């Protein structure tokens, strides 16, 4: 049980008592705000407090968070009690600290059950000290305005719940609303007028001396006797008035006795260059985040349980846990992305990992941009649809059929083309449908010069390889838009009426999918729901890799019911407010999104599980070849 956390920061000069007692602050009773001019000793005082916490506290009862806007505390990020050290290079890290602390505040509130932190005897949670160096930078930056109310709440409610705040500032402008909740005020090396503004009263001049200044008294003064015991000083003095102070000097954490004792207390491992005892560490992403960095950050943690269907795409920003797409649970995935945001890398990683298993077939539906051409080059046997093709060419392919070749997976390529005995089950070859031979009926003559559009080719492939789509395919074979059953059966090739697994990945990157032209509308409204019903049984996976806005309401609604998981490679609040109102993201609150998520850096994205209503921001694994 922690009843107090008293840090001795220097000496008071109390003329009325003619004594110079210790300048002490109890972090369980007072937050600290430290004002000072440059080179006045502000950073030294923060270092001193962190050093004292490492001397007095342990990993079981203390945790430190640092936001360093001044850049002078970088050496402390590896200290055993420091859970998180972030600078202001990435706004997401600032948001991340406040998310963590808000969660801790809620957890501590539940654990304390209405009892103050210092009075909680059983089940007392771990104490947290939150440092912000150069608080003025935090206040002056427009992008951090959304966190100022969160900070005020921590100052107001944190002390009684075991969260103490220590901040440094060079100016007191705009800080009136915070000062009342930062009980311990310290000011170093300022003019008399500035001292007066901070303490609301006159002070005597002490000159320009680093480490010297004024502070109000927040706890009863004590002094040590000859036997080393502390006794409270009796006398009349104003506990809220400013008194002159002289701050102690912080020891160098990398030298001398402090370093020796620190390593001994927290069991430093010289071989691995880390402390054996340390608090949970919240990490930051390296400058480049590839596969090697991803596994290094995991530190041996298991990320995949079912490699046939699960693909890890990165780590989430808050917990640094793997963000994994599970295609066994969700057969339809949508990717919303702005240009150049990394969707090519994302789709390539998804497809390449999936193609390592089960000898899957691959169908690529591209458009004039040719952005799936790289996947076609990687998997030459893939069915690639991107442009108009003469009907006569397709008829020739049909008249001279070849032995079907399954798409080679990455695993089979590595095996030199050899496959296991069990892989023939997934080879894509199908038994002949068991139907009586229909009577021969002459086919209508179709002009040899006619061509099939990419969408018509895709529907034709689905009809012949996946499922009978009925009259939606009749025009492709007979020239008629509608046929009766007697007419259709002999002339329209019926696809897979039999039920067997046919593992296939469909990557739909073409803008045609979202056009309201008749055949495109029919594909999304009628054919895709049919495929959805049989996707799990037949082992189909659909990746809509470049989702576009749909003007047709019925198409949009059908699409939204299909998609269960989605990526957004864009600033989420802007995306939802400008483009996403009619998407699966339409129910998300834009105001909350702006408060909870920062702007995307390069390689950032969001993963949304619709059914779980879970939105995670993550850093995407970036392949070196791109």
Question: What's the gist of this structure?
Answer:
Helices cover 30% and strands 20% of the residues. With 626 residues, it is α/β, with parallel strands linked by helices. Strands 2-1-12-9-8-3-7-6-4-5 form a ten-stranded mixed sheet. It has a ten-stranded mixed sheet with strand order 16-15-26-25-24-17-23-22-18-19.
Key descriptive features of the protein:
19 helices, 2 domains, DNA binding, 626 residues, ten-stranded mixed beta sheet, Rossmann fold, alpha/beta, single chain, 26 strands
Explain what this protein looks like in three dimensions.
The strands form five sheets. The chain has a ten-stranded mixed sheet. It has a ten-stranded mixed sheet with strand order 16-15-26-25-24-17-23-22-18-19. Residues 407-447 and 482-497 have low confidence and may be disordered. It has two domains: 11-275, P-loop containing nucleotide triphosphate hydrolases (Rossmann fold); 310-388 and 399-416 and 425-433 and 455-463 and 499-620, P-loop containing nucleotide triphosphate hydrolases (Rossmann fold, 3-Layer(aba) Sandwich), CATH 3.40.50.300. The radius of gyration is 34 Å and the shape is elongated. A hairpin with an 8-residue loop joins strand 1 (6-13) and strand 2. The chain is an alpha/beta fold and 626 residues long. The chain is built from 19 helices and 26 strands. The longest helix is centred in the N-terminal third of the chain and has 22 residues, at 91-112. 30% of the residues lie in helices and 20% in strands. Helix 16 (518-538) packs parallel to helix 17.
């Amino acid at each position: 049980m922690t009843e107090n956390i008293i840090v001795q920061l220097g000496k008071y000069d109390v003329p009325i008592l003619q004594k110079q007692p210790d300048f002490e602050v109890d972090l369980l009773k007072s937050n600290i705000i430290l004002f000072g001019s440059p080179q006045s000793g502000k950073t030294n005082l923060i270092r001193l407090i962190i050093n004292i916490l490492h001397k007095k506290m342990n990993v079981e009862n203390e945790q430190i968070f640092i936001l360093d806007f001044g850049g002078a505390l970088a050496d402390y990020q590896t200290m055993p009690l420091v859970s998180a050290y972030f600078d202001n290079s990435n706004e997401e890290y600032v948001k991340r600290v406040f998310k963590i602390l808000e969660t801790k505040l809620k957890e501590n509130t539940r654990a304390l059950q209405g009892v103050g932190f210092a009075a909680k005897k059983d089940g007392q949670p771990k104490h947290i000290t939150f440092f912000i160096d150069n608080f003025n930078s935090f206040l002056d930056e427009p992008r951090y305005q959304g966190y100022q109310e969160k900070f005020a709440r921590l100052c107001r409610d944190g002390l009684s719940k075991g969260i103490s705040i220590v901040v440094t500032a060079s100016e007191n402008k705009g800080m009136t609303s915070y000062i009342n909740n930062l009980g311990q005020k310290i000011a170093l090396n300022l003019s008399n007028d500035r001292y007066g503004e901070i303490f609301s009263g006159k002070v005597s001049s002490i000159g320009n001396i680093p480490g010297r200044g004024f502070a109000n008294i927040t706890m009863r003064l004590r002094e040590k006797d000859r036997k080393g015991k502390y006794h409270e000083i009796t006398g009349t003095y104003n506990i809220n008035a400013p008194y002159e102070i002289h701050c102690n000097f912080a020891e160098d954490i990398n030298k001398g006795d402090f370093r020796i004792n620190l390593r001994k207390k927290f069991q430093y491992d010289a071989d691995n260059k880390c402390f054996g005892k340390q608090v949970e560490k919240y990490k930051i992403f390296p400058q480049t985040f590839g596969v090697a960095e991803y596994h290094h950050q995991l530190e041996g943690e298991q990320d995949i349980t079912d490699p046939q269907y699960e693909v890890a795409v990165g780590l989430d920003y808050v917990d640094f846990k793997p963000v994994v797409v599970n295609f066994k649970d969700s057969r339809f995935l949508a990717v919303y992305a702005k240009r150049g945001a990394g969707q090519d890398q994302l789709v390539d990683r998804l497809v390449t990992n999936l193609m390592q298993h089960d000898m899957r077939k691959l169908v690529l539906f591209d458009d004039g941009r040719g952005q799936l051409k790289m996947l076609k080059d990687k998997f030459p046997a893939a069915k690639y649809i991107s442009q108009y093709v003469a009907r006569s060419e397709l008829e020739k392919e049909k008249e001279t059929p070849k032995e079907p070749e399954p798409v080679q997976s990455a695993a089979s390529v590595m095996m030199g083309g050899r496959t296991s005995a069990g892989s023939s089950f997934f080879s894509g070859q199908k038994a002949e449908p068991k139907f009586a031979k229909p009577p021969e009926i002459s086919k209508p003559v179709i002009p040899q010069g006619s061509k099939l559009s990419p969408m018509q080719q895709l529907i034709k492939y689905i009809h012949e390889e996946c499922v009978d789509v009925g009259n939606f395919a009749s025009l492709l074979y007979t020239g008629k838009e509608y046929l009766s059953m007697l007419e259709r059966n002999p002339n329209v090739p019926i696809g897979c009426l039999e039920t067997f697994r046919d593992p296939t990945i469909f990557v739909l990157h073409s803008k045609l999918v979202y056009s309201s032209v008749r055949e495109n509308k029919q594909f999304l409204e009628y054919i895709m729901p049919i495929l959805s019903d049989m996707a799990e049984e037949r082992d189909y996976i659909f990746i809509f890799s470049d989702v576009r806005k749909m003007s047709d309401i019925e198409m949009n609604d059908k699409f939204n019911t299909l998609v269960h998981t989605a990526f957004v490679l864009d600033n989420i609040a802007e995306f939802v407010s400008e483009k996403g109102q009619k998407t699966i993201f339409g129910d998300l609150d834009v105001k909350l999104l702006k408060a909870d998520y920062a702007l995307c850096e390069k390689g950032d994205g969001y993963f949304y599980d619709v059914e779980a209503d879970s939105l995670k921001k993550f850093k995407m694994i970036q392949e070196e070849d791109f």
